[in-house]
Amino acid sequence: MPASMTKVRCPQCGGESLWSAENKYRPFCSERCKLIDLGAWASEAYRVPVQEEKIDPLDEPPKAG
């Protein structure tokens, strides 16, 4: 299959998406899927989990050697 005909999974709906310059929505299969994903980013639905470090304000900072 030529590189221009490569098919991938749409990250939004899981359907088939054409990975080529002809698909202006790539990696999405459609404008709808692309806009749904953009909305999720805008509403901060996608987040990287962070574990906050508890710092005791009474602890002394490490001394430089």
Describe the structure using short key phrases.
65 residues, alpha+beta, Erythroid Transcription Factor GATA-1, Chain A, two-stranded antiparallel sheet, 2 strands, elongated
Give the helix/strand layout:
Layout: E1 6-9, E2 16-19, H1 31-42
Antiparallel strand pairs: 1-2
Task: Give structural notes.
With 65 residues, the chain is of the alpha+beta class. Helix content is 18%, strand content 12%. The protein has a two-stranded antiparallel sheet with strand order 1-2. The mean pLDDT is 86.
Summarize the structure.
The protein is of the alpha+beta class and 65 residues long. The chain has one helix spanning 31-42, and strands spanning 6-9, 16-19.
**Termini gap:** 62 Å
Given helix and strand content, the structural type is: alpha+beta
Report strand %.
Answer: 5-15%
What kind of assembly state do the chains in view correspond to? single chain
Determine and state the CATH class of the domain at 3-42.
Answer: Alpha Beta
User: What is the element string, with H for helices and E for strands?
Assistant: EEH
> What is the third-level CATH name, the topology of the domain at 3-42?
Erythroid Transcription Factor GATA-1, Chain A
CATH superfamily of the domain at 3-42: Erythroid Transcription Factor GATA-1, subunit A
Number of strands: 2
What does the main sheet amount to?
A: 2 strands, antiparallel
Strand order of the largest sheet: 1-2
CATH architecture group name of the domain at 3-42: 2-Layer Sandwich
Relative helix content:
10-25%
Tell me the Rg in angstroms: 22 Å
Number of helices: 1
Shape: elongated
Low-confidence sequence ranges: none
Average pLDDT level = 86
